[in-house]
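Read as amino acids, tokens; as here:

___
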Amino acid sequence: MGFWNTVQIALRSLRKNRLRAALTILGVVIGIAAVTAMVSIGQSATSLVRGELEGLGTNVIIVMPKMMRRGGVQDSRSVSLTPGDAEAIRSECPSIAAASGLVGFANQLVYGGVNWQPKESYGVGIDYLMVRSWNIRLGGFFGEREVRSAEKVCVIGQTVVAKLFQTVNPIGETIRVGNIPFRVIGVLEAKGANMVGEDQDDLVLVPYTTVQKRIHGNQFKNVHAIMASARSSDLTGMATSEIRQLLRERHDIYPGRPADFEVQSTTEIASVLGVITGSMTAMLASIAAISLAVGGVGIMNIMLVSVTERTREIGIRMAVGARGGDILRQFLIEAVVLSVLGGAIGLAFGVAGSIGVITLINQWSPGTDWPVVVSFPAAVTAIIFSGLVGVFFGFYPARKASRMDPIDALRFE
């Protein structure tokens, strides 16, 4: 008997028992839908994290002071990063393209009769925007002269513009930071919210020397952090090593002694988060795959029942010349058709479910923007895997049917 004749017989048999076929594939539908949804949501989370880290800047490396403890007491003198360290990183590390010190402060901004407390207020160097891959929308950024002379100038984000100035052009206007007047010289392009929903545009930037001398009003020259950018993603690891070596030399830290700083790159953070999200996705997909195995067992059970019900049919087919291989192919084709059909339906439900879940997350968490990620390779793998489930769980019933004795089959009641 030809292969296509066997396929037609198998499909005709499935059409005669539509309800049973539908119930048979239900387990496969649930399994494939669950696996597809879990993988898609996991990939969406990974893509979100990667996008947020890219939004932080290009190949960013963050240097933080390490607060040392002496006798159980935190020693603030160990906060030893300086603007000179930032300058040395920029000029002496070949793999570094830009570097800027960072000094935080917290003061209300006042314009006319309106007050506003921005979420982020930083004193920074001239390379800060280059490190963050951030552009100016209006006006300009302060330069070396303003930093050197601690000028009272500032650059503000879009949220600050909306809160203080509304329809007024802020360039050239004077705002008070605490009680100190600052002239607005630039407005940043909008960046939007980060992955935890915090507004990145609610900030003000001033020269770090201005923060140290005029806002903090002290003689300490330390900075709270240093942000640097590697020349390329391939050089991030080398740039990190160069920074560690340079700062150990500048801080007189001998080999074997703990450093008074910590260096991390967004590449390292992304790889750690990638491992976490990948592990969670694999775990959830493994749990969801259990239902796929249950669906395969369901196919085997129904096929065994079908073999028993169609014993006389099998006997008649063998009596008129069908061979065991023909019977084996017929039942295998039925099992594969059921599982692949279930896989296709499950794939559609899984994609729809992942889109629905991501849409709900974006609605419940204003400011977050989870991307919808549907992996084509994962979809193809799901269909192929569902077909393999049909072959695996359908082989035993098909083999049992192909080994029936025609005479015994014809006598079966």
